[in-house]
Amino acid sequence: MTLRDIEIFVTVCELKSMSAAAKKLYMSQPAISQAISQMEGELQVRLFDRIGRNLSLTYAGEILYSYGKRILNLVREAESTLDDVKNMRMGRLRVGTSTTVGIYLLPEIIGEFRKKFSIDVYFTIGNTAEIEKLIFNNSIDLGIVEGPVHSRDIVVTPYIDDELYLVCSKSHRWAEKKSISPAEIENEDIIMREKGSGTREIFEETMARNNVRYRIKYVLNNTEAIKKAVEANIGVSVISRLAVKKEIRGGRLVKVDIENIRFERKFSIIYHKDKFKSNLFEEFIKHLYNYSIR
């Protein structure tokens, strides 16, 4: 049976007339009769008793009528739901972000977006390498990352600028300095994110480009833990300005410049080149850019 067959059968049941059903469905009466006969032949049951000009459902017909109504209602419900999705009255978006964006930026962005659209936004936090893998597995629709992306199958669109700050404790010997020379960092204990982190990759690339030697003594995969360790004067670290602006304003951490060296980067929006970009997808991208320029 096709959906059209079910629609014809249910319409005949409700109108109790093949001619009336034909008129409602813009079909000829012989076409309606043929469709019912074909259904009976395929199912090998009688659906109607034809007594004179009257049609009445058989027991098998009553069963099919019950199922038929439910099927057509489900189809209408599916069409209505998909229309809501198309017009963004409902929907689902899966976003993956690297740690800095996920903790310090994305919650506010999603909150503002949900004020405009009643949709579910699920987000996952991981390092850049992990988000790239989720894109490939189609586990997320798009990502916002802080590190370089290495696959040609992923579209990378520049988003917002960021800078990593070298920070130390207020009790560290650098706290009273405005800047240090690159040589001063060589023997310092550095607390750094794990490999695969965009922060670490930017730090290592910048130091290599400037021929600066360094020593990573502690590796932590949590930015908040790194900040606490720096506050305790266990070592120094390089952390996004988004993550340390409150601590710097509050005097718990101190920003230290390195002469002629800046750790600059750009957050990027990424998605697979073959990803279907729905209305919701495009609207969220637009929202990201509108939010970033406030």
From TrEMBL:
<dbReference type="InterPro" id="IPR005119">
    <property type="entry name" value="LysR_subst-bd"/>
</dbReference>
<dbReference type="Pfam" id="PF03466">
    <property type="entry name" value="LysR_substrate"/>
</dbReference>
<dbReference type="InterPro" id="IPR000847">
    <property type="entry name" value="LysR_HTH_N"/>
</dbReference>
<keyword id="KW-0805">Transcription regulation</keyword>
<dbReference type="InterPro" id="IPR036390">
    <property type="entry name" value="WH_DNA-bd_sf"/>
</dbReference>
<feature type="domain" description="HTH lysR-type">
    <location>
        <begin position="1"/>
        <end position="58"/>
    </location>
</feature>
<dbReference type="GO" id="GO:0003700">
    <property type="term" value="F:DNA-binding transcription factor activity"/>
</dbReference>
<keyword id="KW-0804">Transcription</keyword>
<protein>
    <submittedName>
        <fullName>Transcriptional regulator</fullName>
    </submittedName>
</protein>
<keyword id="KW-0238">DNA-binding</keyword>
<dbReference type="InterPro" id="IPR036388">
    <property type="entry name" value="WH-like_DNA-bd_sf"/>
</dbReference>
<comment type="similarity">
    <text>Belongs to the LysR transcriptional regulatory family.</text>
</comment>
<dbReference type="Pfam" id="PF00126">
    <property type="entry name" value="HTH_1"/>
</dbReference>
<dbReference type="InterPro" id="IPR047788">
    <property type="entry name" value="LysR-like_Sec_metab"/>
</dbReference>
<dbReference type="GO" id="GO:0000976">
    <property type="term" value="F:transcription cis-regulatory region binding"/>
</dbReference>
